[in-house]
């Protein structure tokens, strides 16, 4: 499978990607736990059907030490016993923030209350920003049909500066 459009061979797309990567760096350097960041990226990517991002974020999570059991159960997190209550709150926010068109009220008060229970203001800022950023990345990659499977952890590290 080939992409419809090579974002990596376009000057405008690469300028945007560099700025996008720098925005992601802000979140990466935030106090939001890295495991939570990975779980949110994976779950939103699964919902959006973004193979490219699902491939990238599962491999990055594995390289960071995430267990295969947890990676395999992200899509079924509600029925799995391997996630903390804080991670469950973040995954609920990721799902509701990703499925805005499916629920006219957006993120529920119950989910927001759970997020407030487990995360401080800086972590919430990072979590909300992460949900927005991963959804944007999913849309970019789905639109151009970037194929999944060839990502290697860290291969985009040089994009930040």
Automatic annotation (TrEMBL):
This is Alkylhydroperoxidase. It holds the Pfam family CMD. InterPro entries: AhpD-like, AhpD_core, CMD-like. Residues 16-96 form the Carboxymuconolactone decarboxylase-like domain. Keywords: Oxidoreductase, Peroxidase. It comes from Rhodococcus oxybenzonivorans. Gene3D superfamilies: AhpD-like. GO terms for molecular function: peroxiredoxin activity.
């Amino acid at each position: 499978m080939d992409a419809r459009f090579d974002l990596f061979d376009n000057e405008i797309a690469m300028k945007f990607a560099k700025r996008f990567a720098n925005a992601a760096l802000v979140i990466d350097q935030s106090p939001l736990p890295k495991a939570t960041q990975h779980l949110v990226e994976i779950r939103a990517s699964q919902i959006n059907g973004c193979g490219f991002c699902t491939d990238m974020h599962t491999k990055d999570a594995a390289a960071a030490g995430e267990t295969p059991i947890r990676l395999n159960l992200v899509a079924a997190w509600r029925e799995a016993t391997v996630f903390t209550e804080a991670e469950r709150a973040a995954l609920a926010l990721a799902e509701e923030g990703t499925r805005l068109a499916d629920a006219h009220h957006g993120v529920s008060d119950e989910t927001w209350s759970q997020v407030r229970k487990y995360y401080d203001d800086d972590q919430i800022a990072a979590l909300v920003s992460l949900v927005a950023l991963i959804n944007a990345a999913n849309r970019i990659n789905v639109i151009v049909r970037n194929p999944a499977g060839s990502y290697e952890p860290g291969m985009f590290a040089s994009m930040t500066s």
